[in-house]
Amino acid sequence: MTTAQIARPTASSAIPLGVACGMGAGALWGLVFLAPELAREFTPLQLTVGRYLSYGVIAAVLVARRWRVLVAQIGRRHWRQLTWLALAGNTLYYLLLSTAVQTGGIAMTSLVIGFLPVAVTLVGSRDHGAVPLRKLTPSLLSCAAGAVCIGWRALGSPAHAAGAAPLVGLACAVGALASWTAYAIGNARCLARLPAVSSHDWNLLTGLATGVQSLALLPLAAILGGSSHGLDAWTRFGGVSVGVAVLASIAGNALWNRMSRLLPLTLVGQMILFETLFALLYGWLWEARWPTLLEGAALCFVVLGVVSCLMAHRGSREAGPVH
User: Fold this and answer.
1) Burial 308-317 (b: 16+ CB within 10 A, else e)
2) Which of 106, 199, 273, 322 is the most exposed place for a label (fewest CB within 10 A)?
3) When comparing pLDDT for 287 and 52, which is higher?
4) Would you place residue 289 in the very low, low, confident or very high pLDDT band (cuts 50, 70, 90)?
């Protein structure tokens, strides 16, 4: 037995470790729902460019030492995949999410993103190591019930009773849902096909691709930026951009990529629930209030959905690819 084999998690330990990584990623990713509120003076495009320019610069610094080694392992086809993943999972997703938060609110946006586990699980149900859908039915129903509870509360609130803004926010949130579903599935499959590239390095390469896209969007963001801002606003914008880049894009993505190699795709989908859970918790703290009865019920459904999905996977012999 080689040293590499000893260092690899066993099938029995892969799921607990993968779930822990998924929880960590969700806790960090939930912060991105707060960023548009913390820097509300800036447009969604400015927020997207600021976050991912920071992500790209940090990734370039961290990847510099291993650049020659990675270039030898990554072909032209892989760069095309990285460009597509950067667009679907980062640039387009965050542009739509920021718009949804600023026009529809954190709760409603969290509701729609809460459907990600259902979407990813359904698409990934035919992948290797996947648990049959009939065993996942209780989990999927719990997720759907939780999302409905949150949506009922968010869309029925007095703040959203009039005007077209909530509808625009809802449409953007649905777009973000579709974009990130495509990313989650494509990213997991790319990682499975590239065992020689570590999850951390793949994350940094994705950051480089996203940084290039943000650089291309910089002139448009400047033109459409609207009114000028004071020093305090720009300082806050810079702090939010760098903070989200480090915590969500670097640390959160690294945890997510590690989890994607430890868990089957059907369970990967369920882990996205933690992003929704933490986004709601941060939203309640930001608004300085307790959850309503419907929101509390939604949390119970979310937890029940994750637990029932874990129970379904415990009996499976295949825990998915382990690296």
Assistant:
1) bbeebbeebe
2) 322
3) 52
4) confident
Alpha-helical segments (H) within 156-230: 165-193, 199-223
Calculate the alpha carbon distances from 23 to 19, 197, 278 in Å.
6, 23, 9
The CA distance from 314 to 258, in Å, is 19
Could you tell me the two tokens for 140? 């999927």
Local structure of 323: helix, strand or coil: coil
Reported as a single tens digit per residue, the pLDDT across 172-219 is 998 999 998 889 888 888 888 888 888 888 888 999 999 999 999 999
**Core vs surface per residue 38-52: b (16+ CB within 10 A) or e:** bbeebbbbbbbbbbb
Residue 166 · residue 100 · CB < 8 Å: no
Domain ranges of the chain: 12-314
CA–CA distance, 264 with 249 (Å, rounded to integer): 22
CA distance 98 to 258: 26
